[in-house]
Each structure stands twice: as structure tokens, then as C-alpha cells.
Design brief:
The chain is mainly alpha-helical and about 290 residues long. Helices cover about 75% and strands about 0% of the residues. It has one domain: Orthogonal Bundle (Tetracycline Repressor, domain 2). The protein contains 13 helices and no strands. The termini are far apart.
């Protein structure tokens, strides 16, 4: 049983939940002007796990043949034979149903919008077959998280102040697109042979890394815009400075002619970014009794 659980957790890269979940929690806190209620928090968490699991399961199912042909991904669970494609597709259906259930338990607006959100989450997996903009579609898939959490809290009143989660969501979009461009540099030659689309395979590593830096500068500018919109406590400002330092470190790890440290840049650094901002917002909430 534990081996089966481990296979599914590895399949959906459960540890990578730290990329989007902190921003969903921040979105919920901003919407609630404080800590959201326990009921809403639980169902937001269920929606996040269900939606992300469906997206990852579908991606692994759809890309099984591509993963089997790529030396970097040949050891993933489907190509390695640890789990069948039918089981993964069934898992995706169950995870999707869980996502819809959570949306329905939150409010009517969340339920009505949930099919469109799931379409984005699943649709991303097709995009590298026809557009180099796939990195930005992935960013959109994760950038929906704070906006979805905002709607989960505010329901029919979600349009009031919606520019706040939109700014945060756009920041997440550019952050994710930037680090996905960096990650895709490892597959430049493979993508070209398979006629898969990515910015690195189209313009080369050097220009791709420059575009990734530009995306991350855009993220920081959007966070500054969020500060201007909602105000900021000292911890939140320090959190943004910390994120800037992390992004500078991330880009220092990767050079066009040396991609050996991409994994450290992708997994280690980016897993901390959202947690830093979440901690900053939480500290301001605890210290001053309000979200910055």
C-alpha cells in the first residue's frame, strides 16, 4: 500500500505543491482581510490538491511517449512501468471530481468557474505541441491560484477589489514562466528533434535565460504594484526584497554553457519563494492584526 501511495505522490510531484499553495493562501488572506475561516481553508486546500493532481496526472498520461523517449525523463513512473496509463487516467478523473466537489462546497461562483479553470490546468499539457508560449500557459495555470482563493472567500462579492488577486496572479504567472524557461533549457536538443515548442529550443539558451530574467523583473514590478495597491507592513516589504535576492541567486546558478545546476535553481530556490512571501504576510498579520 505504501509503495502505491509513494508512486502516486511521485507521479504528481506532490512536493511541488509549495509552488502554488502559498500564493493561494495569500489570496485567501487578502480576500478575508485576515485569516480565512477553517471551513473555507479546508476546501481551498482540497481544491488545490485536486486540481493540481488532475493536471499532473493528465500531463504524465498525455506525455508518456515523450517521456519515454527523453533520457532525462525516461525513469518517470509510466515509462518505467511502475504504473499503467489507464490507472493514471483514472486517477486524473478522480482528482478532477474532487476539484469540482471542493468548488461546489465553497460557493456557486467557484463551481460555475471550475470547468474553465480545469480546462486551463489540463490544457497546458497540449501547448508545447504547437506554441513556444507554453511557459506562460503554465504560469497562468499556477497564477489562477490566488484569484481562485479570492473567489472562494468572497463568492458573489469577488469582483470588489479583484485587482488585488489579479496583480498577485500575474506576478505568479511571470515567476513560473521564468523558471520554466530556465528548466526547459535542459531539453533544447530533444525538443528540436521531436519538434516540440519552447522558448529555449526556438531562440537558444542565452536568449532564453535573458527572457527568464526579464520575466522575473516583471514579477517584482507586479509585487511592487501590489504593495502600492494594498499598502505594506515591514515584513511584506522585506519578503519582496528576499524574493528578489532569491531570484538573483537562481539566475547566478545557470549559465548558457553550464546547465549543471538547473535542478538546484528550479527545485530548491523556487520552493522557497512562495513560502517567503507567505511568511511575510503572516508575520504582518500576527504583528499588526491585519494583512499588509
Amino acid at each position: 500500500m505504501w509503495n502505491t501511495v509513494a508512486v502516486y505522490l511521485r507521479l504528481i510531484r506532490f512536493s511541488h505543491t509549495v509552488f502554488a499553495l502559498p500564493f493561494a493562501i495569500i489570496g485567501a488572506m487578502l480576500a478575508a482581510d485576515g485569516w480565512p475561516g477553517a471551513r473555507e481553508s479546508v476546501w481551498i486546500l482540497v481544491a488545490m490538491v485536486g486540481g493540481r493532481s488532475a493536471a499532473m496526472g493528465f500531463n504524465r498520461w498525455l506525455d508518456a511517449d515523450i517521456d519515454a523517449a527523453n533520457p532525462r525523463t525516461v525513469d518517470r513512473d509510466i515509462p518505467a512501468g511502475r504504473i499503467g496509463k489507464g490507472a493514471v487516467l483514472g486517477f486524473t478523473v478522480v482528482a478532477s471530481a474532487l476539484f469540482f466537489l471542493a468548488a461546489g462546497m465553497l460557493n456557486t461562483v467557484a463551481l460555475v468557474l471550475s470547468p474553465f479553470v480545469l480546462a486551463i490546468l489540463l490544457g497546458y499539457s497540449f501547448t508545447k505541441r504547437f506554441t513556444s508560449g507554453s511557459h506562460f500557459v503554465l504560469g497562468l495555470a499556477l497564477g489562477i491560484a490566488p484569484l481562485g482563493a479570492w473567489i472562494a472567500i468572497r463568492g458573489e462579492q469577488s469582483l470588489a477589489g479583484i485587482e488585488v488577486p489579479v496583480l498577485l496572479g500575474l506576478a505568479v504567472l511571470l515567476w513560473v514562466a521564468g523558471f520554466d524557461i530556465i528548466y526547459s533549457c535542459m531539453d533544447i536538443e530533444f525538443d528540436r528533434r521531436r519538434r516540440l515548442h519552447s522558448i529555449p529550443s526556438r531562440v537558444g539558451a542565452r536568449r532564453a535565460l535573458a527572457l527568464a530574467r526579464l520575466a522575473h523583473v516583471g514579477m517584482l514590478l507586479l509585487l511592487a504594484g501590489l504593495v502600492a495597491r494594498v499598502g505594506a507592513g515591514p515584513a511584506f516589504l522585506l519578503g519582496i526584497v528576499g524574493v528578489a535576492a532569491l531570484l538573483v541567486y537562481e539566475h547566478s546558478l545557470v549559465q548558457p554553457d553550464n546547465l549543471d545546476r538547473v535542478d538546484r535553481a528550479f527545485f530548491t530556490v523556487n520552493s522557497i519563494v512562495g513560502l517567503v512571501l507567505l511568511a511575510a504576510v503572516s508575520i504582518d498579520l500576527l504583528a499588526f492584526g491585519r494583512v499588509p
